[in-house]
Amino acid sequence: RETELSPHDLIQPIFIAERDDDAREIPSMPGVRRFAVGDLAGEAEQISARRIPAVLLFGIPAKKDAAGSGAWADDGVIPRAIRRIKQARGDLVVIADVCLCEYTDHGHCGVIKEESVDNDSTLPLLARTAVAYAAAGADLVAPSAMMDGMVGAIRQALDDAGREGVGILSYAVKYASSFYGPFREAAACAPKFGDRRTHQMDPANAREALAEAEQDLREGADLLMVKPGMPYLDVIAVLRRRFPQAPLAAYQVSGEYSMIKAASERGWLDERQAVMESLTAIKRAGADLIITYFAKDAAEYLRRA
Ligand code: PBG
């Protein structure tokens, strides 16, 4: 067997609600829930017990505004979540997603000017958010806004704040994908108008992925990511070959999760086999790390195998 999956390859995403009332199941993602900050110690314990080394955090704030100021508030949902997880399990690697779409009332990933996202005025806000998460104890920040120059702006801001040790996992190659549908319900971040095609990549493009990855490495990305996973295995394979020096992550996104769940619930797929096959395929294509909502399940399957 050429490819072996291990719990060490996996990263578990976690949704955290600032308001306890919002901490509930996500209907479009059966088996996934939003946690209250107070429930995170137990969850961190369970994830660690399964030998999964890292988590990726997404926040659902109590209030949204035009700028997305909840993203960088020192006592916002993500800084509080980071501190709680680190208190419970100091050895769990905490990665904080950096984007504004969960925090803006219009649901876009940055500042809106003339009905579209303004790249350059968004950069300082992303940088400020990354610094707030680093100050709370994040090991890595993961910018997902797909703004040009975001990795450089964040690296500079982290260094200026004395956070040289905090790394950047860049969503370097992020497609404008329909497979994010369930996530937008989970994180309440669907855009109120328009879409994200001005800044996320066209699913028809593969060469552009090389340019995106190259630029992010030049700006200081420590790890690269391709997202979604299974529809883009060719892109994962190309990045693996072209950037052998860079650790490569792939994100098996919400729609990939929900498809397997929905078909399994109907008895049309064997859930365990479909999960393990999809994760093995992503690793075989060249991913070192896989962000997946199935992380805990997969780790359990591996333990029992
Ligand atoms: C944006 C973000 C999205 C996802 C991760 N970060 C949604 C989007 O770009 O619209 C999607 C993840 C998933 O579908 O599981 N902050």
Helices and strands in order, then pairings?
Blueprint: E1 10-17, E2 34-36, H1 40-49, E3 54-60, H2 77-88, E4 93-98, E5 112-113, E6 116-117, H3 119-136, E7 140-143, H4 150-160, E8 167-174, H5 181-186, H6 207-219, E9 223-227, H7 233-242, E10 248-252, H8 254-265, H9 271-285, E11 289-292, H10 295-304
Parallel strand pairs: 1-2, 1-3, 1-11, 3-4, 4-7, 7-8, 8-9, 9-10, 10-11
Antiparallel strand pairs: 5-6
Residues 97, 99, 101, 144, 180, 183-184, 196, 253-254 line the site of ligand PBG.
Would you kindly provide a written description of the structure presented here, covering whatever features stand out?
Strand 7 (140-143), helix 4 and strand 8 form a beta-alpha-beta unit. Strands 1-3-4-7-8-9-10-11 form an 8-stranded parallel β-barrel, surrounded by 9 helices. A two-stranded antiparallel sheet has the order 5-6. The protein contains 10 helices and 11 strands. It has helices spanning 40-49, 77-88, 119-136, 150-160, 181-186, 207-219, 233-242, 254-265, 271-285, 295-304, and strands at residues 10-17, 34-36, 54-60, 93-98, 112-113, 116-117, 140-143, 167-174, 223-227, 248-252, 289-292. Helix 2 runs parallel beside helix 3 (119-136) and helix 3 crosses helix 4 (150-160). The two termini are 15 Å apart. With 305 residues, it is of the alpha/beta class. The protein is globular.
